[in-house]
């Protein structure tokens, strides 16, 4: 009998204890039929995933030729894409070590303050030299990073005295830049490429076809490279911009020291004319 008593006590314990049993004749405890938050979520199923929209690109030409985009068709709405080349050549590391500035954080800060969307064509060497800035630019939804090669060497010659990338190495140079952006932690990277110096030929267009990039040129030259007069740069842009224009400027203090000052005049004057600033991906997709 003692053994039976011990067995009964053990079974009561497994059931949660005698205190949890209702007293004889008492009404059973109310049971809530309201599903728990977890159960509701499970019943509703997983939330639909946000699928990022792929940036638009142009189709390759016959035989596999990299397409080239220059501007939006004339007659488009009043939009303009400001683009900034963040130049640093592969052999300029020693100059940076001696204190030369190939970045321009004040320009980026001004674009943010003025709420200007823009595309930065960055070299891989620039991203390696300024990884924190590359990550910051590439993490800001107002900006997108496009490829300006790793080395900033020419893809066709002659080209402003730049060293030349050999044909078989061109695609590798472009991919190396994309790798540098990834290593820096940049997120907003688009499959666009700008030839260093704007120099290219049919051989270069064919060499880059395997990368899948769209080459992006421009229709408005700002003239900010090595300029010393910000008003002259602003005048040139303001005189040449049309609806759908794509402007080339620079994000390099040592080679374009007055760009930020020019932007402070360009942006409000174009807005007063009714223009809106867009990234290349938006301009191309319109």
UniProtKB/TrEMBL annotation:
Gene Ontology biological process terms from the UniProt entry: carbohydrate metabolic process
Pfam families: Polysacc_deac_1
Bias (Low complexity): 19-48
Gene3D superfamilies in UniProt: Glycoside hydrolase/deacetylase
GO molecular function ontology, one term from the record: hydrolase activity, acting on carbon-nitrogen (but not peptide) bonds
Domain NodB homology, residue spans: 78-278
Region Disordered, residue ranges: 18-65
Protein name as catalogued: Polysaccharide deacetylase
Organismal lineage: Bacteria, Bacillati, Actinomycetota, Actinomycetes, Kitasatosporales
């Amino acid at each position: 009998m003692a053994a039976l008593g011990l067995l009964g006590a053990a079974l009561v314990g497994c059931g949660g204890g005698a205190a949890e049993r209702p007293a004889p004749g008492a009404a059973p405890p109310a049971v809530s039929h309201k599903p728990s938050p977890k159960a509701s979520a499970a019943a509703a199923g997983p939330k639909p995933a946000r699928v990022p929209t792929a940036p638009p690109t142009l189709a390759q030409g016959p035989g596999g030729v990299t397409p080239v985009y220059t501007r939006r068709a004339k007659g488009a709405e009043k939009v303009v894409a400001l683009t900034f080349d963040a130049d640093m050549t592969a052999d300029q590391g020693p100059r940076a070590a001696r204190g030369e500035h190939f970045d321009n954080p004040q320009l980026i800060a001004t674009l943010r303050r003025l709420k200007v969307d823009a595309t930065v064509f960055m070299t891989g060497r620039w991203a390696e030299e300024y990884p924190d800035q590359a990550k910051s630019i590439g993490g800001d939804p107002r900006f997108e990073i496009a490829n300006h090669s790793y080395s900033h060497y020419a893809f066709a010659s002659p080209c402003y005295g730049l060293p030349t990338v050999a044909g078989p190495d061109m695609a590798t140079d472009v991919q190396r830049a994309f790798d540098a952006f990834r290593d820096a932690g940049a997120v907003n990277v688009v499959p666009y490429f700008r030839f260093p110096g704007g120099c290219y030929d049919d051989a270069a267009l064919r060499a880059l076809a395997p990368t899948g990039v769209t080459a992006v040129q421009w229709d408005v030259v700002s003239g900010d490279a090595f300029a010393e007069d910000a008003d002259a740069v602003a005048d040139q842009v303001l005189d040449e911009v049309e609806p759908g224009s794509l402007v080339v400027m620079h994000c390099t203090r040592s080679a374009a020291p007055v760009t930020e000052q020019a932007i402070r005049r360009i942006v409000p004057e174009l807005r007063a004319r009714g223009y809106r600033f867009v990234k290349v991906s938006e301009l191309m997709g319109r």
